[in-house]
Design goal:
Belongs to the class I-like SAM-binding methyltransferase superfamily. By secondary structure, this protein is an alpha/beta fold. Helices cover 28% and strands 22% of the residues. The chain binds S-adenosylmethionine (SAM).
Length: 817
């Protein structure tokens, strides 16, 4: 293993108590208490420190100005306070003792913690207004001190999440250099109290400014023993609440690239992989880990419970990526002795470093020859797919391909098996179409030696530069055993027909480097019962959520960039679809097949030279239905391929099958097919995705579009008769109801709709048409259903759709010339 290098930053969270310690104030060796603290934390091995920006004095003054009684009996003190408040609103400014940091050098390596009593989502309009002014004042001061990141207080009130988001959006616009990180527990811990029979926590409590915050993030040193032990399990819907608030806020901020998350792990982590995965797909900047999240091991040293450990390891994995966000760990409540019997403060830091050092992802990344080592730096990094037909690849690109230990091995095996199966004859003729620098040519020769078959080998290549390498290898390695042809396989002529046609023109989505079109041109080389390697390839699709990839695609502010496909090694990506068929039994698996291409294809009309008359036979379209078990935001689709080379030998990047077919293959990262505007999908919704492969004489391109639906139970209720006689006769659906925490109520709990709504009626209820065997929605009337009043059924209500992406190939296409 090469030298290990740390890739995560670790910060410590200081409290007001920490920064105002009397002994610090008296220290003669340092110019200011903060400089001493900074030097100490650096010496202990931290990379940064989180410091509250304001003191108690500021909160007191703000309350005295802004929390005043309104009404008739205003005394002179109230009038004076109102006046002071107005003066402050006009020119917001701090007094010296209201801030913790006063000098530029004190603020180096500091992450500012914004006053957590600022309730930007308060129920009270006026308070919200004053909190926003106070926020702007703090952030302007942080900008003045050249602070790079400020951590915002957690949103608490779902009803005003949009107000919170609007205020943050305005703050981002006013402080363009500042990163804002929204502090949020993974879920609202109050749901567990509700589980234990206590009153439900919804709607979220609105705290009086200045009262203890209902949210977490106080670096508590207490309750170590109970943490990580048995806790009630919250239902899925309850766990969606905080994520939904985040989703509203970042959407209102239009996915601002400077807005990120600080996940607060103070409450013990909920179980359920789906819940945790979702956060890994979000732009995490910090993970707050208080000493209370640690448990004591047998010797009394702090360690993390298993669930938290694996979550932190996932975070560490994400921090090895070169994309926008590299989450840092913020340790809280560890200053001084910490909260555990043994080890002191250093034990927490050492433990997190130990987790990092022993993380399989980090170990693999630092070990040459592993996929992780090869892929280092490519995670979540958007690359344009290659266009080997239109462009001439560089030698360096070929060299990268050739490092793949699996692809060439499988090709050799496929050629070997084909040769073994080929009837004994004097010799077998093989053509490698698109030979590049010759690795498949070399493998064909080895396969022939292994199979003890005499072969005549042709190699065709249209890249003039790679053709030089082929000539060199033929002269120096292959003893001129290979007959080389320079030119496009759709145009060159070979001296004789061949028995086996070998090619590798595959893209991440199978056909997206125009293998079908190129092989159409090369098929005339094959004798009538000849073999094509590959024999076929299929494209696969799955809906995904990744605000990281969404942000990356939008980075250049170019509308074309969000309807262009990319090749990406996925890291902070969550596949949204579940394996099950969903409530309506309409959906396929989590990853579904789009289409297939087979070679050779014998049913296409050809011209005199043996070339297809048109490219119509390579047009494809597919509509797929996905079940979405957990609420999430659709940012696009993952595209994969699987190829059959020969017999049971193949290549696959399908996540569920790649290990069985071509484990450790490096050549292809998945395709990312983005959507312009994120689409929110509730728990248990259904997503219908349409994708087309289209072509004209010069180009091939994809277009894509999606619609979302909610399964519902409906009843043809007699209520209809009570409504206006002018109302059309429509089946009356029962809306699915979303409770205050975003979970879908079951049909028996849902509210009946009592009048026909134009929206609902327009896209109303349809049954799954089993007779036609089609998984697609079909709209029917009650008469068609033959349903009586009061009859019940299952259907769906449409809830959203995307735009049609890339119409006519306006943003992204693959050149045929
Ligand atoms: C993906 S590379 C594979 C190269 C090599 N066979 C390998 O596996 O490393 C595809 C190669 O096919 C060549 N190619 C693509 N389209 C072609 C065409 N129509 N005629 C001839 N060569 C083509 C490209 O120049 C490139 O060298």
């Amino acid at each position: 293993m090469s030298d290990w290098h740390s890739s995560i930053n670790i910060a410590t969270l200081l409290t007001l108590e920490d920064v105002q310690k009397p002994e610090l104030l008296a220290d003669p060796d340092h110019e200011t208490p903060l400089l001493k603290l900074a030097a100490d934390t650096h010496a202990k091995g931290y990379d940064a420190l989180c410091v509250p920006l304001t003191t108690e004095r500021w909160r007191t003054r703000w309350r005295e100005m802004c929390l005043i009684a309104t009404g008739e009996d205003r005394d002179t003190a109230t009038v004076a306070a109102e006046r002071r408040a107005e003066e402050w609103r006009e020119k917001p400014a701090f007094l010296l003792d209201e801030v913790t940091l006063t000098r530029l050098d004190e603020a180096a390596n500091v992450i500012a913690v914004v006053s957590d009593w600022l309730e930007l989502d308060s129920e009270d309009d006026w308070l919200r207004h004053d909190f926003e002014i106070a926020l702007q004042q703090e952030l302007a001061y942080a900008t003045y001190l050249n602070i790079g990141t400020a951590i915002l207080p957690p949103p608490r009130n779902r009803a005003h999440a949009a107000s919170y988001g609007r205020a943050i959006g305005a703050a981002l616009a006013a402080n363009p250099a500042l990163h804002l990180s929204l502090r949020l527990p993974i879920y609202d811990p109050a749901v567990f109290q509700a589980q234990a029979g206590k009153p439900p926590a919804s709607p979220a409590p609105v705290s009086v400014p200045g009262s203890p915050s209902p949210a977490t993030f106080s670096p508590s040193r207490a309750s170590v023993s109970s943490v990580g032990s048995s806790v009630a399990r919250a239902p899925e819907g309850d766990l969606n609440g905080n994520w939904e608030m985040w989703d509203v806020i970042r959407s209102v901020c239009d996915y601002h690239p400077h807005l990120s998350l600080t996940l607060d792990l103070t409450p013990p982590l909920p179980s359920g992989a789906g819940i945790l995965d979702r956060w890994a797909a979000e732009p995490l900047r910090h993970v707050f880990l208080p000493s209370s999240a640690f448990i004591a091991n047998a010797k009394g040293y702090p360690v993390l419970p298993k669930g938290t450990q694996s979550f932190i390891r996932d975070i560490i994995k994400a921090s090895t990526s070169r994309s926008l966000f590299r989450p840092a760990i913020v340790l809280g409540g560890v200053a001084g002795a910490g909260a555990h019997a043994r080890g002191g403060e250093g034990a927490y830091l050492q433990y997190v470093r130990h987790l990092e050092k022993t993380s399989p992802a980090i170990v693999a990344q630092n070990t040459p020859g592993t996929v992780e080592h090869y892929a280092y730096g490519y995670q979540d990094y958007l690359q344009s797919p290659l266009q080997p037909l239109m462009d001439n690849l560089q030698s360096l690109t070929y060299q990268t391909f050739e490092k793949d230990p699996v692809k060439y091995r499988n090709y050799e095996e496929a050629v070997f098996k084909a040769l073994v199966d080929w009837p004994a004859a004097e010799h077998v003729t093989i053509c490698v179409a698109g030979a590049g620098r010759g690795p498949l040519v070399a493998r064909c020769l080895t396969a022939a030696d292994r199979a003890r078959r005499k072969v005549v080998l042709y190699a065709v290549e249209k890249n003039p530069n790679a053709y030089v390498t082929l000539q060199h290898r033929n002269a120096t390695e292959w003893e001129e055993r290979v007959k080389l042809f320079y030119g496009d396989m759709r145009a060159v002529e070979l001296p004789a027909q061949v028995d086996i046609l070998v090619s590798e023109l595959l893209g991440s989505f199978g056909d997206n480097e125009l293998s079908p079109e190129c092989l159409d041109g090369a098929q005339r080389f094959l004798q009538p019962n000849g073999i094509s390697i590959p024999a076929s390839y299929t494209s696969w699709l799955a809906p995904l959520s990744s605000s990281k990839l969404h942000n990356e695609a939008r980075r250049g502010n170019d509308v074309k960039a969000v309807e262009t496909t990319y090749v990406v090694m996925f890291k902070a990506v969550k596949i949204l679809s579940g394996a099950g068929p969903g409530a309506g039994k309409r959906c396929g698996g989590a990853i579904q097949e789009c289409w297939e291409f087979e070679h050779p294809r014998r049913d296409v009309p050809l011209d005199a030279r043996g070339l297809p008359l048109t490219n119509s036979h390579n047009v494809r379209s597919k509509t797929l239905n996905f079940h979405i078990p957990h609420a999430g935001v659709l940012h696009g689709f993952a595209g994969y391929f699987e190829a059959v080379l020969y017999g049971d030998i193949g290549l696959s990047i399908h996540p569920e099958r790649m290990d069985a077919v071509s484990k450790d293959m490096l050549s292809w990262f998945p395709l990312f097919i983005p959507i312009k505007d994120p689409l929110y999908l509730p728990s248990n919704s259904e997503l219908q995705v349409s994708i087309w492969r289209l072509t004209n004489k010069r180009q091939v391109w994809y277009e894509w579009y999606a619609e979302s639906f909610m399964p519902v139970s409906y009843t043809t209720a007699s209520v209809e008769k009570d409504a206006s006689p002018a109302l059309p006769r429509m089946p009356l659906p029962r809306f699915p109801s979303i409770d205050s925490r975003g979970s879908l109520l079951t049909s028996s709990q849902s509210t009946p709709v009592v009048a026909a709504s134009p929206l609902v009626d327009a896209v109303d209820v349809f049954p799954f048409d089993r007779r036609a065997g089609s998984p697609s929605p079909r709209f029917v009337t009650r008469e068609e259903l033959g349903a009586e009043d009061g009859a019940r059924g299952e259907g769906v209500v449409k809830i959203g759709q995307t735009a049609l992406h890339n119409p006519g190939g306006r943003s992204c296409w693959i050149g045929l010339m």
